[in-house]
Amino acid sequence: MRTRSAVTLVALLVGLVACTSEGGSRDDAGATRPPTTAPTTPPGGALPFGVSAALDTQKAQAAAAGRQYRPSFVSTSNASGGRTLTVLDVTSAGGLVAAANPAPKTGDGEVEIGQSEVGLQREAGFAPFPRARQKCSDQPRQAVYADERDGTVTWTESASTNLYVFDWCVFAYSPKTRTTTLLGSSATFAKGKEMPEAPGTSAPSLGNGKVYWATAYPTSGEREFGVRIVTRPLSGEGEVATVAEGGKLPRAAGDAVYYVRSEDVAPGFPKDRYEIHRVGPDGRDTVVTSGPLAAGRQVSALTVSGNHVSWVVAAPEQESGTLYSLDTTTKKAVTFTLGHAAPPTMFLRSTPQVLAWGNGSAAGDAGQYVYDFARGRLWRLGTEDGFSVVYAKGDVLAWSKLPEAAGSGAATFRTAKWNAGTT
Description:
The chain has two helices and 33 strands. The chain has helices spanning 6-13, 187-190, and strands spanning 50-56, 61-62, 69-74, 78-79, 83-90, 96-101, 105-107, 110-112, 117-122, 125-128, 142-149, 152-158, 169-174, 179-185, 205-206, 210-218, 225-233, 241-245, 248-253, 256-261, 273-279, 285-292, 298-305, 308-314, 322-327, 332-337, 347-350, 354-358, 367-372, 377-383, 390-393, 396-401, 412-418. A five-stranded mixed sheet has the order 1-26-25-24-23, with no helix packed on it. Strands 2-30-29-28-27 form a five-stranded mixed sheet, with no helix packed on it. Strands 4-5-6-9-10 form a five-stranded antiparallel sheet, with no helix packed on it. The model is unreliable at 1-39 (pLDDT under 50). By secondary structure, the chain is mostly beta strands. Helix content is 3%, strand content 46%. The chain is globular and about 50 Å long.
């Protein structure tokens, strides 16, 4: 099992303050970029689909305001009561899903966090969602992941500040009823044990009327913990139900959900390959595509939108991960050499218009990239060593901006509308 993600730690401990050299400026934080050779055959063997283009982020063009995108507003990093705003997603209407977090307290080698308040941040300010009537736990928790679709928002909160432990509570806010509902708690699965986070991420994903997420659970087998993908209706009706055993990185797409199966979450599965599955509304589980995995490589990110299924195969340190974007209608993929190892802390998002990503807190290429599906063009929004993040919903983008001096404040986000199909 992997450790807690860097975004979680930054959110919990420092409120997304610049992660650069202590006391230095951001210019001191450069990292060596891994080699960017883009092989036609990936390490481990041939691909089961054709490659229509092999791109390298080094050749991306700079996106310009007024041409490729129309700027909207820049978020603030401060909320009332001395709290810090942590951005968790962008909305299709142009706002931001954010969490107002009290400053953590430290002492005797321990970190004490305060309770997050999740809501929408717009240019006019921050408006929190109502609290859920159902109780999850007595401990204060901070929001670490979120997903928004047409005004509905789901998010995950955790009380843990331990790298190796991840308790969770999943919530959903409905704009129709203006209520927040508790959908699930890790206590249901933990059986009194401390559990790690699911490999990849335990981030929730919104579908049509349902939320999906991955969770670890204790087993009596050779491995201490197993991994399964679960779901529950947004209404909170019924119980949390299992969608797939031995899967990770669930991503909803309408009434279906996609996920990755590989040996790290499915004991007995071949170590040298992975599969991407689709579970339809009838519960039928089919393989969409697959690929080889060389030693030391795993699928670290997945996103689905429109006809495109996109995923990242992470590489060992000092090597370059590869991003694949498969058009399921043509069965052809575009590949991207990333210039960093692509660990699970990277950010990958897609809409029917664009594919967007940043390396999160990884070493190497910290560019914030947008690939325009219609034009087949790769653009760079900016570069943020230490916290390279891009969110995307519809034609709306949001990307991180760190303070000029290290430790001088929290990250803000620029929002904009993408001009899809521009040259």
